[in-house]
Write a structure and sequence with these properties.
It is built from eleven helices and seven strands. It has about 250 residues and is an alpha/beta fold.
């Protein structure tokens, strides 16, 4: 069975369990895939690290939380005017911080020195006129830094975002000391052999709707949904901080 197809089927089983809110026998789970007859030989290979198989099938997420109680996690995303740090600029920053059962979100447009191209306007839905009165990147980072501090950062394709963020933070006297976890790396470890690990490909695999626009807060939420699934795949009953999983 193709890996992507197998993980899509497994996610349908996880979604059925979440909808029920309780463990189900394999036969009842088979109904989620419209299976008839003996289902155990077909379903058992689909039960990845998210699942607890005892007398019935449950989910590890019911037994321990994400993120780990001893870790604050910040999921972060940027929108930029292009792919070249040093030449292109940030036009939006968003993050969600999870800590101790609390959730704090932050989002801001960022004023660039040069307006985005028509292609970037179409891609993000962010128009040049919206950016004219936005704060500078330094002002945005100054406001966001209390939420960034003391947390593990989770970024999809982290090297790209860090190439924009690191020089700005260091220029403000904020050296980047937080552990950084790339969600692409986590996904590769949890689901080897997929071939594509972009946010759109992983979103489709986990049943998330297609993106209408590339906006920072929407992509943070999408990354968070992906990392939630991958976290339980990788921990499989042995909860660990994300900073350890990302090493």
């Amino acid at each position: 069975m193709e890996p992507a197809f197998r993980y899509r089927l497994a996610t349908r089983l996880a979604q059925r369990l979440r909808a029920e809110g309780r463990p189900l026998p394999l036969e009842a789970l088979g109904e989620a895939l419209s299976l008839r007859g003996p289902v155990a030989p077909l379903l058992r290979p689909l039960l990845d690290g998210r699942f607890v198989l005892e007398e019935a099938v449950g989910l590890w997420e019911w037994r321990y939380p994400f993120p780990h109680p001893q870790e604050a996690v910040v999921v972060l995303d940027l929108e930029t005017t292009g792919l070249a740090p040093g030449m292109n600029e940030v036009i939006e920053l968003a993050l969600v911080r999870l800590e101790g059962g609390r959730r704090q979100a932050f989002q801001s447009l960022v004023r660039p020195n040069h307006p985005p191209s028509p292609f970037i306007e179409r891609l993000t839905g962010i128009q040049a006129w919206e950016l004219e009165g936005a704060p500078s990147l330094e002002e945005v980072l100054e406001e966001a830094y209390p939420l960034l501090e003391g947390a593990t950062w989770v970024i999809h394709n982290a090297s790209f975002d860090l190439a924009f963020l690191r020089p700005a933070l260091e220029g403000m006297g904020y050296p980047l000391e937080s552990p950084v976890v790339d969600s692409i790396r986590l996904a590769r470890r949890a689901m080897p052999g997929l071939g594509r690990y972009g946010l759109d490909a992983l979103s489709a695999l986990f049943g998330l709707p297609p993106r209408a626009e590339h906006r920072a807060l929407g992509d943070v939420e999408r990354t968070l949904s992906v990392v939630y699934e991958v976290y339980y795949m990788l921990t499989s009953g042995s909860p660990r901080p994300l900073r350890d999983l990302g090493r």
